[in-house]
Structure formats: structure tokens, C-alpha cells
Amino acid sequence: MKSKKVYIIGAGGHGQVVAEAVMKMGITPAGFLDDNSALFGKKIIGIPVIGRIEICSKIDGKFVVAIGDNLTRKRIVDRIKLPVEKYFTVIHPSAVIGKNVKIGAGAMIIGGAVINTGTRIGNHTIINTSSSVDHHNAVGDFVHIAPGVHTGGNVKIGKGAFIGIGTSVIPGIEIGEWAIVGAGAVVVKDLPGETLSVGVPAHIVRRLK
User: Fold this and answer.
1) N or C: which end of the chain has fewer CB within 10 A?
2) What pLDDT is stored for residue 80 in this prediction?
């Protein structure tokens, strides 16, 4: 794997965090891809921005879509239509991964994260800095578990959900697809999809659709 070229799609803040995680894995990313033409030819954290996202179909290597926003990340994956084997899964060496954990293609496990036994992490999902995902969780595709989130055992988080920084989720909870949970919330009951919830305990403040 270390001989493979890895490209980071997205040169923003999260992209740089992911690039540094890849470097910690012993691989220097071959470049950033970004649609911001003002960045072309520049180096960010020592890595060149080599062109627009679409050129990924013309270059050999593996790719990670390092965009923090879930819907934007999904739109890019849908747009570029790469086969699943072309995606690189990032696991920072300081992360703690339990036995029988399955981590999807293009997922990003950032420094200090803990994922305990029997958990499934979906494709293109972010488990961000110093968050913990306890045993036998099921985390869908395109989820973003923000820094400092802690989930109990047997939690289910649906596709595209965003769990805000510092949130706690008690065991056995189910959070629906494309739900948003605000920072610092404490989730003690199931939350349906496409809702925004905040507070201690977390409560729905509005429907998103």
C-alpha cells in the first residue's frame, strides 16, 4: 500500500487533517484535487494542488474525499463515479480499532479515535478527532462523527447523519438518516431522520425537509 499514490480530494481544513493522517500512515499524498482554481500550482502543508476534482478519472492512484460536509461529500462521490476499490481508507496510527470492526472504503478515522469491537463504519464516513464509537455500533455511509463525540454500545446512526462536537449518545439509540445533532447534545432517545436536534437531553427543534 505504501507504494500507492494517494490523492486527497478537498484542500480545505478537513482535507489537510486527512492529509496529515495519511502522512502519519507513512504515505506522502501525491496531491490535492480541488475545484478552487486559485489554489492550482500552490503547495498546502507541502502537498501540491494539482487540479480539479474531475482529473481523478485520468490519474492512477487511490483517492479520499476529504470534505467535512456530508451532503457535499456524497455529491462529489456521486459525481466522479469511481469504483469502490479506487478509494483509500484513512486510519490514523493513534486510533484504537477493536476486533471484528469493519471500516468502509474512503472512511477517515482521525487521530485519537476509538472504535470498539463489532462496530461497522460505512463508506466515506468520518470518525473525527478523539471521538469514541463503542461496541457493536452500526454507522452508515457519509456520516460525520465530530471531534469528542462518544457513543454507547449498540447505537445505530443512519446514512448522512452529522453528530456535533462533544455529543454523547447513550447505548441502544437509533439516529435516522441525514439527521443533525447539535454540539454538546446528550441523546437519550431515538431521533428520526432529517431532523435537527439540540440540547440536554437532545430534542427536535425542526424538520430539515
Assistant:
1) C
2) 96
